[in-house]
Amino acid sequence: MKTAGVFPVLLVDDEQHILLSSESVLRFAGIREVKSVDDSRQVVPILAQGEIGVIVLDLFMPYVTGRDLLADIAREYPHIPVIVMTAANEVETAVDCMRAGAFDYLVKPVENSRLISSVKRALEICSLKQQVTELRDHLLTNRLKRPDAFSTIITASPKMSAVFQYCEVIAESLQPVIIMGETGVGKELIAKAIHDLSGVRGKFVPVNIAGLDDNMFSDSLFGHKKGAFTGADQARSGLITKAAGGTLFLDEIGDLSDSSQVKLLRLLQEQEYYPVGSDLPLVSDARIVAATNRDLREMSAAKTFRNDLYFRLCSHQVLVPPLRDRGEDIPLLLDFFSRPRRRFSGKSRRAIRRNW
User: Fold this and answer.
1) How far from chain centre, in Å, is Cα 86?
2) Does some domain include residue 14?
3) Among 54, 121, 196, 340, which one is most buried in terms of CB atoms within 10 A?
4) 217-275: per-residue pLDDT in tens?
5) Within a domain: 182
6) Nearby residues of 81 by Cβ (< 8 Å), 6 or more positions away
7) Whether residue 114 is found in the same domain as residue 163
8) Full strand arrangement of the beta sheet holding 9-12
9) Separation of alpha carbons 105 and 89, rounded Å
């Protein structure tokens, strides 16, 4: 059940209508792996299978109370965040639950945005813990689990090896990634490797947004409704739809206009977007990977790039070193690019190197 960095959410409540409404809210918000249980006696056997990331727990239930379950989970499964959701609006009860190990305390009826926010924060904690564990394992073993994912990148540099190890760790988190580096260092190849390692079933959809004005950006990414503008004779889906369940790669993100930055920020924050001419939001589950050859930190300080968007994009940062900092790769690249020339001219590698 737990695949591609997805941590399932377990809803525990004896009231079926609450389970149904909560599950619908979370699924609409893009949290696809949700499981509901109305019998508290089933919780421990489910946890024993090791497939749950976050628990949303009612306090007052027959058979096994939420308080008892909270204590058991805190003792046996301390790594699982537990969100208490109950009708008891009492400060003392809330304090007792937090002391017992609860991640958050929500009072029914809970606003949809409050529930979504709490669950997403808990899922982020799960993802960070997993990444720390995997990063530690990579550092201890100093080897890649999937070297084939980087087979298109020609290198023997320890610096690039460190980049590959980091990419392998963050690939399954499905959080945004920003890849920085000079032109020609292979940022799109790194993005494609992250996509291949992520385990998602959707496509890798690259788009270069340099030179796109706000209208072209919105139409290309989000699509439009029929009649949205002159010439829009029929509705068209955008690239974000094409990347559903996969990865949308935005190259040259530093060239994005101010108004387009606002739209991208909403997509990252809410997983929502508006097709051109529509006032109804659509939900996206595509992962955003961006790349730039510019210094976004400096641009953010100079107010030419939104600081909140920079913060969202920097969930994971990958800095690809230039070739001048990894001289050991030059012979490999020389050999690779000179092969067609050697076959055509009949010259040896040594002769070509002398000519250069």
Assistant:
1) 30
2) yes
3) 54
4) 999 999 998 888 888 888 889 999 999 999 999 999 999 999 999 999 999 988 889 99
5) yes
6) 53, 54, 55, 103, 104, 122, 125, 126
7) no
8) 34-37, 9-12, 54-57, 82-86, 104-107
9) 10
Instruction: Report the alpha-carbon angle 117-123-125, nearest 5.
Output: 105
Residues 179, 86: one domain?
no
**Residue 272 near residue 284 (C-beta atoms within 8 A):** yes
pLDDT digits (tens, 9 = 90+) for 314-326: 889 999 999 999 9
Stated pTM of the model: 0.73
Residues of the chain with pLDDT under 70: 1-5, 140, 340-356
Which among 245, 215, 212 is positioned nearest to 231, based on CA atoms?
A: 215
Residues 30 and 173 in one domain: no
Report the CATH number that the domain containing residue 110 is assigned in CATH: 3.40.50.2300
Residue among 178, 198, 206 nearest 319 (CA): 178
Same-domain pairing of 175 and 315? yes
Asked whether 23 and 11 are in contact (CB, 8 A), the reply is yes
* Separation between Cα atoms, residue 204 and residue 202, nearest integer Å: 7
Residue type, 222: F
List phi, psi (to 5°) of 250. Answer: -105, 105
Residue 339 lies in a domain: no
